[in-house]
Write the structure tokens for this entry.
Amino acid sequence: MDRARVVRRRLGFGGTLLATLFACASLTPSLLPRTWLFQGVMGAITGIMGYAVGASIGAIGRAVVPYRLPERGRVIAWRVMIGACVLLTTVTFGYSFGWQRDLRALMGMDTAITWFAPVILAIAVSLFLPCLLVARLIRLGGRTLIDWLDRFVPPWAGHVAGVLIIAFLVAVFANDVLFSAFVARMSDVSSVANSGTHPGVSPPTSAKLSGGPGSLVRWESLGREGRRFTGTAATPDQLESFSGQPAAEPIRVYVGLDSTGSVSERAALAVRELERTGAFGRPVLAVLGTTGTGWVDENIADSLEFMYNGHSAMVALQYSYLPSWVSFLVDKERAAQTGRALVSAVRARWAALPAHTRPKLLLSGESLGSFALEEAFRDLDDLIGRTDGALFVGPPNANHIWYELTTGRRPGSPIWRPVSRAGTSARFAQTPRDLGEPPGPWRHPRVVYLQNVSDPVVWWSPKLLWERPAWLTGRRAPGLNPRMNWFPVVTFWQVLVDMETARSVPPGHGHRYGANIVDGWAAVAAPPGWTPADTARLRELISVL
């Protein structure tokens, strides 16, 4: 066979059919609305994967079944298939505009959107063709290698060795060249961003805040998100205007990547900073997990400060400055190490205090921050046995305690609102009223998981490639698009792309939890005398901050 035909031959029947089906499936609705640009990229990715599946099935079929259609039969089959693909693509594009509008309406968003079907198709095709060319060049290289090996070893051995060698080289190139270069580029960009400061953020003037007067941590070493965390703490005047009572200066301790060397050194520095600020003398001390960039959700911090009228202390460590989704791929172990080191160091100093003088020791983290903190504990019993409560927001599938509670849920309870251990220790919620379920005792210490049914951070998993998720079977959760379905491979990429827009939707959807965090804190660690009316007032305040 002419080797050039490997590259220049026309599209295969099975590959074309499956590429079209996969690309059309990618147009169906997922968890969140998306733009026409993202849709074009996703169409190309799913299309090339569909082509690979179809081409593989075709190759196996030809090897197993020797019969071939006559030329006229093949021509008819191609014409029917192309006509069906064109019709399916046209119909799917027609419906896709309405699907995106319905999804936006479900989330209370503006339904006047731009959806350029021809441009989406052009983007998908323009990205699909280079990917197909690369795949065929790899195949050509594999055939050349196999032909060479066949000179020295039996044909079966040459084929096996050739396939293994090409697969190894592709894997090494993809991981050590392409992915490493991508991570290095992201690191360079993120490093520059980490050295900057958000507009309107300036060094604190309070000695109770890291980077302020007398701090053991330099303002310049905090990083972009650390500077925002300490530079935007509520002032006593703001706290008093809400509570009507004299307020204390809140304590916020943050140690950035540039503050000192190892993780253990940063954790030790954080404890010394807590001691300097008098944090162990406050009624409540919260250990906070950060996301990849070092970000702490301002709603987590603000809600607790207003709830305790400034008589609170918080501490967080930075372990990376990469975007969270990149950190999840390359810094997950570093996040776990940071969580374990910080919890261990803070708790050791806390446990050394007389029992009656210890503050409530709380945990809270969002996304990868919740993962980092969970890694400091064996299981739920260990968590509630060594802390006074936890609030985890938008936990990813990788959280092992979340996973154990979810998979071990009571039969009949949905995965999006699981009931584990009769809800006596941990509860899951999307809305405040969910915290009242199931009826019955809810003992302290309490653990709350806030998870929106449309949050891709919570529901994305590699298993979406081949397995229908439990949240798309049986009774659908309120707020989940009823037209969403699962397709092998396709849904994996849909939900992955949803992560890019997870914070571009209204609170209560996607990865935005807004004022619901107030209800989470009120359930976990409300101060003495706190009432539902106080929760409602604080919800209103947090909603506009």
Notes: The radius of gyration is 27 Å.
